């Protein structure tokens, strides 16, 4: 079972990867980060990634990028 530190490092790494990928596609999610409430848990589960809220323009850009990738 991973330690709390290992779980934190894993989720921080994936947040960094997601940020880089979104940036490369021209999509900025300002609230992208680690959900702080799930960091308080001591169970086996990894902390959650908070994709967060975004404005209409960002949501439209994200939808367009996802549509392009799906095709």
Q: Number of helical runs? A: 3
Q: Roughly what percent helix? A: 55-70%
Compute the number of strand runs: 2
Gross morphology: elongated
Mean pLDDT: 86
Computed structural class? mainly alpha
Gyration radius (Cα, Å) is 14 Å
Please mark out the parts with pLDDT under 50 across 5 or more consecutive residues, or reply none: none
Biggest β-sheet description: 2 strands, antiparallel
Domains, number:
1
The SSE string, one letter per element, is HEHEH
Strand order of the largest sheet: 1-2
What percent strand? 5-15%
Termini separation comes to 39 Å
SSE topology:
Layout: H1 4-24, E1 33-34, H2 36-39, E2 49-50, H3 56-70
Antiparallel strand pairs: 1-2
Summarize the structure in words.
- The chain is mainly alpha-helical and 71 residues long.
- The protein has one domain.
- The chain has 3 helices and 2 strands; from the N terminus they run αβαβα.
- The longest helix has 21 residues.
- The protein is elongated and about 40 Å long.
Essential attributes:
71 residues; mainly alpha; 3 helices; 2 strands; 6% strand
Concise account of the structure shown:
This protein has 71 residues and is mostly helical. It has helices at 4-24, 36-39, 56-70, and strands at 33-34, 49-50. The longest helix is centred in the N-terminal third of the chain and has 21 residues, at 4-24.
